[in-house]
Automatic annotation (TrEMBL):
This is Cytochrome c1. Its cofactor is heme c. Residues 37-211 form the Cytochrome c domain. It comes from Pseudoalteromonas lipolytica. GO terms for cellular component: membrane. Binds 1 heme c group covalently per subunit. It holds the Pfam family Cytochrom_C1. Heme c binds at residues 50, 53-54. GO terms for molecular function: electron transfer activity; heme binding; metal ion binding.
Length: 245
């Protein structure tokens, strides 16, 4: 049984390598799950720019508002746009068949995207769109080549232009996009957009594991309890064996 499992894992290695995508240096997201202001800004960005296509069908509005410090009345008024009840899951009305027709594939649910991709990947992805007129939506992405979605934050960032260089790959010289340069048409400055991308990444990280801070706090308490228990057990052992030695 174990031999078959090992063989199966080796057989999957090429698939896993392809799924990982091209090797691109990732930027440090540097998020802070304790920063409620950042999480609130990220929630606002997601509801306004992402929810039209991407759901979070395993997360509820009410839990989200409570965890990141948004009063229920304000959240319901400013962040729920389709009349859903505050106890509902965060879903949209787009039909999967229509979405697949428009984008080539149905947009994925983003509840667990931060746990699957990682926060550095998400942050770099949000900052790596660039103008590419050969693509259906006029943009491409360094981290996710041939991406099938528009740059939904374009009005905030503007439409970056690619920075290219000639590189050798497999004995051939190819033109490769190595960076982007903003065109200045966005509503935000570069620093403001960096913060917006970090806020959205922070929110997605929270949604992927809403109880993470509670789990970490509980873990520290358990470790502290075990340390105290070890000290007491050690002292008790010395007391029991004192006369023997």
């Amino acid at each position: 049984m174990m031999k078959k499992l090992i063989i199966g894992l080796f057989a999957l290695l090429p698939t896993l390598t392809m799924a990982a995508g091209p090797s691109v240096p990732l930027m440090d997201a540097n998020i802070d799950l304790k920063d409620n202001a950042s999480l609130q800004r990220g929630a606002k960005l997601f509801m306004n720019y992402c929810l039209g296509c991407h759901q979070m069908q395993y997360q509820r509005y009410e839990r989200t508002f409570r965890d990141i410090g948004i009063p229920t009345e304000i959240g319901q008024e400013q962040l729920i746009f389709d009349g859903s009840k505050v106890g509902s899951h965060i879903k949209n009305a787009i039909a999967k068949d229509d979405a697949a027709k428009w984008f080539g594939a149905a947009p994925p649910d983003l509840t667990l995207v931060a746990r699957v991709r990682g926060t550095d990947w998400i942050y770099t992805y949000l900052k790596s769109f660039y103008k590419d007129e050969s693509r259906p939506f006029g943009v491409n992405n360094i981290v996710f080549p041939s991406v099938g979605m528009p740059h939904v934050l374009q009005e905030l960032q503007g439409l970056p232009t690619p920075i290219t260089e000639e590189v050798e790959e497999h004995g051939h010289t190819v033109t490769k996009v190595v960076g982007t340069e903003t065109d200045g048409t966005g509503e935000m400055s570069d620093d403001e957009y960096d913060r917006a991308a970090r806020d959205l990444t922070n929110f997605l990280a929270y949604v992927g594991e809403p109880s993470r801070l509670e789990s970490e706090a509980l873990g520290l308490k358990v470790i502290g309890f075990l340390v105290i228990l070890f000290i007491l057990a050690f002292m008790l052992k010395k007391e029991y064996w004192r006369d023997v030695h």
